[in-house]
Design brief:
Order of helices and strands of chain B: HHH
Structural class of chain A: alpha+beta
Largest interface: A-B, 104 and 82 residues
Number of strands of chain A: 6
Structural class of chain B: mainly alpha
Oligomer: heterodimer
Radius of gyration of chain B: 35 Å
Helix content of chain A: 55-70%
Strand content of chain B: under 5%
Distance between the termini of chain B: 40 Å
Radius of gyration of chain A: 37 Å
Number of helices of chain B: 3
Shape of chain B: rod-shaped
Shape of chain A: rod-shaped
Order of helices and strands of chain A: HHHEEEEHEEHHHHHHH
Strand content of chain A: 5-15%
């Protein structure tokens, strides 16, 4: 029998698992030879045949204060439920203990898993390759065995599973303890190298704010033009105009302005949301974690190992947070930009047309009336009215200049719409390429600059 | 809503404007020729000119309404996209709070190991503060 010779040494109390022990105590009352049956057949069939190994036990349990590793490993369990979104990040500890029949420990392997899952309705989160590499660097390259025994990376794995509606990544790190200086340095490197300069995209929000301030000034002038024309007509002496000449009804012009305001607000709100989604603006966890790391470092009577482990856990949480939020943002941005580009192109063309063509047409009518208002009395003036003529001509020049400024502002408005359309077109190209946020920021930099110039020009024209 | 397209309405508006300009020039020439501003012919010409100009402006406004009606479908799509972006921002805020609370819990764990009740109390207060931030987020809907 060879390796099966020592089967009699196996007994339920020492070698049976919990279920076997429970069954054994019940069954042996009616079947006293149950333990013999068990060690003859169950033990070899369940591969418990190495006589040197008395026990292999594996426990996988969430890390908590009650576990014996609590002095090394801080608890980090957080869960959230928000509508269809479910997020989970937690630490698990797996202990594998192998002992000989003499009771000496063959090996003790302590594994800590950092599991992070984010699930949300209808879609999956992409895990950016760059971030996966960054985490792998932390695990594989950054942490070395050290003679003082502070840190040992035994095994690491990164698995990626894209299942329907669920994205799951699990990292496994085995260690005895963290060495603070090493892991902090590595995490800092990851954060610096992995952070994306999103300033350019974030500028979308600022530009949307500028547009929100500037564009309404142009739109408000549509009914104002109608009112100015009515005032000019009203100023013409009654004997010089037909008695049945009625002022224009400005309601239609006001309706256009209201509709236009509503539509341009939709466009501005869209770019504002896009800018916020692309940037780190709404997120503060990074600063909070930094503050907490400082707090932990200042806690009195805390061992070096505990501070190291706690600090490292906070750092890993920050890296995980960056990965999850950046992946989520990139995924959402790409999806939104791709599906909305046609609508954005359509709306910007239409808004430009209303202002740069139709409103400018209304201004042309006003311009013609201004000319008539001033030129007719100037042409009919008497020689004795020289001083009055000078005053009138100055007023005429002033009104004409103001009207030209409005036409220039309308032209600038058109350029702002062109810039929005061009910018979004560029975003669509980058989204189709599934470019990273940093690549997108680099590509759209010139378009952001153009949009900024166009809005500045519009502000200048409207002063 | 007009049965004409916006381009057709713009063309009609432009023709009215051009006619108005012609009438205005004709009237101005007559004034330069010595007719007074209250001459019945000059007054009538002003009426024609202003009517043409008003009609032109009205057609431009109608064209604008047609253009904006055309944009309504695009506007609806963009509004939906904005909502999706804002929903995503809300989700990010929730993730932010999850990480904030988790981090605060980490401080509590470390403080428990010090055995110092003051430190534990301070760290626990930090967790409540973090949770309070999440609660207020929920109340504000955002």
């Amino acid at each position: 029998m060879g390796i099966y010779d020592d089967l009699d040494n196996f007994n339920l109390i020492s070698h049976g698992d919990r279920r076997e022990q429970e069954w054994g105590s019940l069954v042996s009352q009616r079947f006293p030879a149950y333990e013999t049956l068990w060690n003859r057949y169950v033990v070899p069939l369940t591969n418990r045949i190495d006589p040197k190994i008395l026990l292999i036990q594996t426990f996988r349990e969430p890390l908590g204060l009650t576990q014996h590793a609590k002095r090394l490993l801080p608890l980090f369990v957080c869960k959230c439920y928000a509508g269809a979104v479910y997020g989970l990040a937690e630490f698990w500890r797996t202990t594998t203990l192998r002992t000989t029949d003499a009771g000496s420990v063959l090996s003790l392997n302590l594994t800590v898993e950092i599991a992070c899952k984010v699930m949300y309705d209808g879609d999956t989160i992409e895990w950016p390759a760059s971030q996966t590499t960054a985490i792998a660097d932390v695990i594989n390259n950054g942490l070395e065995s050290s003679p003082d025994g502070y840190l040992t990376v035994r095994r690491s794995s990164l698995e990626r599973t894209d299942a329907n509606r669920t994205f799951e990544t699990e990292m496994t790190i085995s260690f005895r303890a963290f060495r603070k200086s090493t892991i902090c340095a590595v995490i800092c490197l990851v954060l610096v190298g992995g952070c994306v300069n999103l300033d350019d995209i974030a500028q979308l929000t600022k530009l949307a704010g500028s547009a929100q301030q500037t564009l309404p000034l142009v739109v408000a002038d549509i009914p104002a033009s109608c009112q100015r024309q009515n005032l000019l007509l009203n100023d013409i002496p009654s004997q010089e105009r037909p008695p049945d000449l009625l002022p224009q009804d400005c309601k239609a012009f006001q309706d256009v302005a209201d509709h236009l305001t509503k539509d341009q607000n939709v466009l501005i709100a869209y770019f504002d949301a896009l800018g916020k989604l692309a940037s780190n603006t709404p997120l503060s966890y990074g600063q909070t974690i930094d503050t907490n790391v400082t707090t932990i470092g200042k806690l009195p009577s805390l061992s070096k190992d505990t501070i190291s482990a706690s600090t490292a856990a906070q750092g890993i949480a920050k890296v995980l947070g960056d990965i999850v939020t950046q992946g989520y943002r990139a995924k959402k941005l790409n999806s939104i930009i791709l599906t909305t580009d046609d609508a954005v192109q359509r709306l910007t063309v239409d808004l430009k047309k209303v202002v740069a063509v139709e409103y400018v047409g209304i201004l042309s009518d006003e311009s013609e009336l201004v000319d008539t208002y001033y030129q007719s009395p100037i042409a009919a003036r008497g020689q004795s009215e020289r001083l009055a003529l000078i005053v009138v001509q100055r007023q005429y020049h002033s009104d004409t200049t103001a009207l030209n400024a409005r036409k220039n502002a309308a032209d600038a408005y058109g350029k702002v719409m062109d810039s929005f359309a061009s910018l979004h077109g560029k975003l669509k190209v980058e989204a189709a390429k599934k470019a990273s946020l940093s690549e997108i920021a680099k590509e759209i930099g010139p378009d952001i600059s153009n949009l900024k110039d166009a809005i500045s020009k519009l502000q200048t024209e409207h002063r | 809503m007009s049965k004409f397209s916006d381009d057709q309405l713009i063309s009609i508006a432009q023709q009215h404007h051009d006619l108005s300009v012609v009438v205005a020039q004709f009237r101005l020439d007559r004034i330069h020729g010595g007719l007074p501003l209250n001459d019945p012919g000059i007054v009538q010409l002003l009426g024609i000119q202003v009517s043409l100009s008003n009609a032109s402006a009205s057609f431009f406004a109608q064209a604008a309404q047609v253009t904006l009606a055309d944009a309504d479908k695009a506007t609806a799509q963009i509004t939906a996209a904005t909502k999706a972006a804002n929903d995503a921002i809300k989700t990010l805020k929730v993730i932010n709070n999850v990480l904030t609370i988790g981090s605060a819990v980490g401080v509590v764990v470390a403080s428990v190991m010090t055995g110092d009740m003051n430190q534990i109390a301070a760290a626990t207060k930090g967790v409540f503060t973090a949770i309070g931030g999440q609660s207020s987020l929920g109340k504000s809907g955002g």
